[in-house]
Amino acid sequence: MLVVVGATSAGCGSGGDGSSGSASTATGGPPAATPPVAAGSDYPRSLVLGLDGPQDVLYTPAASTATQASVTATTSSTLLRSGTTAVLAEHVDPALAGLRVICVSGNGESTNVVTRIDPGVIAESAAVLLDSRWSAIDPVAAWSNAVSAAGVLTGWQNCGVKPEGAPSPSSRLRPQSDRSYSEDVYDGNPGTTFNTVLQRVPAATVAAMLSAAGYLTIDDPTRRLRLTLRAYADTSGNTIFVETGVPAPDASGATRGFISLYTRTPG
User: Fold this and answer.
1) Which residues pair with 90 in a beta bridge?
2) Residue among 158, 123, 173 nearest 13 (CA)
3) Nearest alpha-carbon partner for 231 in 138, 101, 134
4) CA-CA-CA-CA torsion for 128, 100, 122, 227, nearest 10 degrees?
5) Sequence-separated (6 or more) residues with CB below 8 Å from residue 174
């Protein structure tokens, strides 16, 4: 089974068709389709926006429908302070134990490196939580496997939370045989103001993202980001990718970066 988690150098707005088969919640607790999460579940290999290397994050589910889940971190980062932070929304795939994406209140700006995509977004992904079942693997080999699988990957870059609707996918990505990829970035919600923005990312850019140095974006001079694409595998043989975008050394302004999730679309 190949499952891919990560963002891409294409932007991920909110919206989508909800066809990923995953479960999400905008109220903080784990969805009914997943096993209950014990209070204070530990995710020691988490990936947190703005910090290098694995981070230990404690996740506490909502005590009731009237409360929110929270995460507790010992180190401050771009969107999570040291201490406890309320979770505005989260995404959990029932097929992937020990992994979840948590989102916190955002600033309402467009997401990723595509400007003017869903400016009403009210949440930003702060971390991909990984427990001890997940370990880093060779990203180049993992991407080769994703290309060979020729499947479709569903993106959840910001948990899909927005004023006009509940969580839903943010993009759909297709690896290409030349090791590039194309991506449909969703803007809005199906049934409201939904449309897509097609992004094409060449093989050279993907290769740079997989490298230790990463790739410095040039698409939007006002939002210079360093993009990295990393791979992890769990003890059951699932493979994931996590992509992050952090401000480039010469970046200025309101650039805050992103961390994103992709899952393999069933079928």
Assistant:
1) 25, 102
2) 158
3) 138
4) 30
5) 152, 153, 181, 182, 183
Q: Are strands 83-86 and 89-92 parallel, antiparallel or unpaired?
A: unpaired
Calculate Rg over the CA atoms of the chain: 17
Chain-centroid distance, C-alpha 5 = 7
Which pair of tokens denotes residue 73? Answer: 């971190």
Pair 196, 17: CB distance under 8 Å: no
d(CA 9, CA 214): 11
53 Cα distance to chain centroid = 16
Reading the block at residue 122, the tokens are 């009210």
Rounded to an integer, what distance in angstroms lies between the CA atom of residue 34 and that of residue 26?
Answer: 15
Tens-digit pLDDT profile for residues 200-246? 999 999 999 999 999 998 777 777 889 999 999 999 988 888 888 88
The strand pairing partners of 172, in sequence order, are: 154, 184
Tell me, yes or no, if the pTM score tops 0.90: no
Tell me 266's DSSP state: P
| Burial of 95 per CB tally in 10 Å (0-12, 13-18, 19+) | middle
